[in-house]
Amino acid sequence: MTMKVSTRQVDGVTIVDCSGRITLGEGSVILRDTVRDLLSKGNKKIVLNLADVNYIDSSGIGELVSAFTTTKNQGGELKLLNLTKKVNDLLQITKLYTVFDVKDDEASAVKSFK
Amino acid sequence: MAMTEQRVSYTLDSSLETIDSAEEKATRIANELGFGEDEVMQISMAVREGAVNAVLHGNAYAPDKKVILAFERTGEELVITIRDQGKGMDLSKIPNPLAPENLLKTSGRGIFLMRSFMDVVEIRPSATGTELKLIKRVHGSTAGGKEASQ
Which chain B residue lies closest to A96 (C-alpha atoms)? Predict the structure, then answer.
């Protein structure tokens, strides 16, 4: 039940479809490498689609924060899309829901970039 | 091993596999004891976070150091103990992950999550390792207060 990602472009925005678990180890590394690779290629409008992410631990939360700040520090924006209830609850109790720009439909997520 | 004898204990290596294994054991035992779906998730995540601390911060992946994980049903409680063989930890140095200056830190949320999910969290550091005790009440939990002693 490792994490898988695939990326696609929609109107200049990169959608990263994530599935599985974002946890210490492979899941966190895959997310980190994916975001770094996108930024290195100049893709600075990023949406992480977490619709199929069924589990995330504190390391995974840290990886989301890292992706967010790394993107921001490089002049980009990273938003979260389609949180499952479990992930949503985790972001609520850690107060990160207010930090991330969280969207619940892809079209408005894409349109929301400047 | 089933939970029929009230207490089961495992001695595990200081590896990433131990973290997944501890989580799987917690999920299975919590299910066997009849916890609801949300509670099972909370217990398994708390155990996972405790195992992460033991493997990474306690034993620091040292191959000669073990993690001892025990599950015990006592009355109406599930008591989980995770012990490592590290140098102990300074609880006073654990920052509040909800403080505005810490919100964007990439680590430091494990103990907070454990306290959010379990009814009791006790941490006893010593020079020969840290013992973590996690308690979840079997028949529903008291709402609100989740934090306990150190």
Answer: B103
